[in-house]
Amino acid sequence: MNKTNTIxxxxxxxxxxxxxxxxxNDFAMVRSGITTPYQQNAGVSVSGELNExxxxxxxxxxxxxxxxxxxxxxxxxxxxxxxENFKSTNKIGLWVGENxxxxxxIRGFKTIDFKMMPAIEVTSEGDFVMSKKVDELRGKFDIxxxxxxxxxxxxxxxxxxxxxxxxxxxxxxxxxxxxISKAYYLRLMKGxxxxxxxTRQHQVELRxxx
Length: 210
What we know:
The protein is of the alpha/beta class. Helix content is about 35%, strand content about 30%. The strands form 3 sheets. It has a 5-stranded mixed sheet with strand order 4-3-7-8-9. The protein has a two-stranded antiparallel sheet with strand order 1-2. Strands 5-6 form a two-stranded antiparallel ribbon.
């Protein structure tokens, strides 16, 4: 058997074995015409799973986008909202929005954080520069595009739809979609709802010079 045939057989064996080992994927994306499943790892933390969803969405957005038109345009990121109510979200919608901003930034997008105050607020409780009070924020930002999205619950799971939209013309420049199973979604929600536990207090002994 020649070297070429040996390589071909080995490649075929690897592909067939990986196909058998593939677990039922919660969502998949298309790259170069090939559907690449996302493999859920039971050992991954809730934050790690949400990072994977965010990366998955931004991977699609960067594939669809026109690099020449968007690479230098300021983009703002908003929270994922419920499809039935554009004024409502949950912890997953908030978290995915934050993660997506990071994923855009490391891919070279010029992202804008519109929750930044024009000055640092110094207090006895800490020093702050972010706010959700409109009157404490800057009056205007140069924002050309916004990344927004929705999530919709179905009997079998939840679908996320993300899009980059031109703020002036409302033209959609790029889109992305991810679907996760109902069990996976409920697991994420349970994990997020359990993250705000009170910090355990420890007694610390203070000593001065002897």
